[in-house]
Amino acid sequence: MLNFKFNPVRYARQNLPSYNSVPPDDYSYSSSSSDLEKRPSLDYSSEYNSSPESRSAHPRRMLARHSSSPSRRPRTSSAKRKASAYTYRSPRRYGRYFTLALFTTLVIFILSLVRNSYNSAWDVQNGRGKPPPQKPAWEEFKFLKRNYGGIRTLVDVKKNKPEYPLQDDEVVAPAPAAPPAEQPKQDQEKPGSEESGQQEKQDNKQNLRKRDSRPIPDSEEFDPYPKEGRSDAHECFLDEANTVRIPKMRTFHGVPQGMPDNIMGSYDIFGMRNDICFERFGRYGPYGVGYSKKRGGTGAGMEGDREGAEKVWSTVPEIDFVKVNWASAQRRCAEGNRHRFMTASSAKSPSYQSMPEGNPPEKDELDAVKKEPEKPVENVDTPTLESKSVGNSTSKLEPRASKILLPRTAVLIRTWQDYHYDPEDVVALRALISELSIGSSGEYTVHFLIHVKDDNLPIWSDEATYQTVLNQSLPAEFHGMGTLWTERQMGLIYGGLAESMYRDLPVHGAYRSTFMPVTYFAHLHPEYEYFWQWEMDVRFIGHYYDLFSKVSKWADAQPRKLLWERSSRFYVPHVHGSWDDFKHMVRVQTEHGTANKNNVWATLAKLNPDIPESAYNQPPETPIWGPEKPLDDILDNSTDPIPPHSDKKDHDEWGVGEPADLIVFNPLFDPHLTNWILAEDVTGYNTTRGLPPRRTAINTSGRYSKRLLATMHRDTSLGRKTMFSEMWPATTALHHGLKAVYAPHPVYIDRTWPPQYLAAIFNGGRNGASGGARTSVFSDERQHNFLGTTWYYHAGHAPNLWRRWLGYKVDGGGGEAEEVSGEGRMCFRSVLLHPIKDAKLVVLKSGGDKDEPQS
């Protein structure tokens, strides 16, 4: 092997084919070119060997074969030789077919992968293909049964044993059994049978006899207006002749037996009564429920249990509301009581509409808002003045010595142009106007802020069009109480904002900038010190003046120290104890932190470089004391209140008696680190080093001071900054050191939540607060916990409770038959409910005797 030498010339010569002559008898090749091309394949393909020896021997074998006898080599026909040659070339043809098929398969496979990848990405983005969500824990809790108790089971609140919440050593007791006559037997009999029909008639007669043996207690008038400081207040009437009074609201003493207590919030801290309950005739009877349209009512409430309803109109007859004009009644009431209120600037006309000549006034409104809000002052030597009374007569007002003047307050009802006002909406609005404005002798003025969605209507260039749209947007009895606004108008007034589209919504839209028309309305109406914003889908079982006045008084009395921290938590009396205990708990949680799952592993987490800093929280927190300014934004803080001393030296002194700039009905939570989907809707701020400090209150219903709204107006128009609607007022108050308060009003729930578990869920954020962590109840994936409550934007218990209270059947319970044969109409404590939509009343035709659903 080592002596082997490769000679390419030698091998080339050996591999050359031999072309020695062949006897013509052996082969008869065709002279065609195709046969000549096939001959080498026929001669050499079967004899080919790759070894050199075989190659060198190949020509000699061929010569020996040609020199042999012709009889040893059979002749082959030309057709057979052609077929043999075609057969040997067939692998190339099928190879091409196989390659084409393989290539096609690969292309289809690649396209399928691309298509599946696109579909998978689309499914992930749209949430398809996810496993069904795990059932929330609260759905396993049992429903409460005594939320819908009737007036025939009323007991004194001290003797009542609430079905919920129970003490730690108590067990769930069954609902009190009703008398046998109160259980309709038609549920036990087969419907449609003659026996069941006869039995039902007999049961109804027995039920009526039994009902007569259990008479309802007497109702009593409810008057929440204070007696002190109202000696000079003039009574207001609905007509110019001063003859039409509104009947007094009536309540029942006690609560239905077994009625649950509120799980969150409190009556006691506000001074509101929890020993009385309201039923539909005592609450809404003065405003048209319970009598026909012929007499000026709604025609609703003519069915169901009506025993004792006539006492509502025993002293004051029913009102024909067709003849009432609420705008005129409000105006007369305000004029007749103007001596009770502070002297305020008159309303201003928008310059872009009036186009005034000359220069604007020297004292600009932006300079006026820099002053501290005017506090109630004492008018020592008020001269005798002659003023119009509520009616046409005049009266001499005696000189007032050391009389405290009251601030004026506007109540803005948010609605829109094509809103459909059903009878239930109209009744609720009558109650609101009557109790806040007419009954208070002008302390409140109710106004409608109407959104015109069509920007192309010429309401700003044609007065007739404006008045037509305004009249078409409100029921006739509320004409003269509205103001129109459009999103294009807000874009003109608050121009210069970055045209951001957050969640495909414009920055000047009604959803993202709900408060733009409110701040501009406040800018044009400096005569009001406070503005309540109220939504059309909010209802209150109770008296509005009782709620507004007592909540405002309580909020004004709150000290500034740890106010933001208290306002960021739900108050659960069954767990937190008294309000003083709750305040102490908040101080400990803030100054020392809590050992919950958000920070219990903080020390170990710091040692792990793979865990980001945002994954854990570090106690303690620094209490908010004064303005919390953004890092990289310059705001006009020249007029912001400054703390008189440090928080360590304060003994709950600063802020006591200071009117609250913001009062809301949900906690002011920190959206940072939560999964609240609108937390990053921030416009005009420098976010290079992160988002500015923020606070949020879900639901925009609440009270806003002139100082707060003027600051928001200035920051938006001059500073060109804004945030999402539910975040903007609270954040403005935070940045400028204004007083913001969460009023923990009573909230009820429909299931038997363990109180400790409920408190942990709703205050599941950072250090026992409701926000500041992913585990916040306001994170998008955790807001389902509000479904069983009476106050949230998608609460399910609120509309069910409201319809049952109105006397209608809901989910198989309630209704006329159950009321008449059972405990009577439902009675409930005062409570805020939201949302209430499409609560259609069953009304009576005008002049008819049959009921028909009102569309």
Automatic annotation (TrEMBL):
The keyword Nuclease does not apply. Residues 343-356, 381-394 have a biased composition (Polar residues). The keyword Membrane applies. Residues 184-217, 360-378 have a biased composition (Basic and acidic residues). Residues 72-83 have a biased composition (Basic residues). Residues 15-85, 174-231, 337-394 are annotated as: Disordered. The chain crosses the membrane at residues 97-114. Residues 17-34, 44-54 have a biased composition (Low complexity). Keywords: Membrane, Transmembrane, Transmembrane helix. This is Uncharacterized protein. It comes from Aulographum hederae CBS 113979.
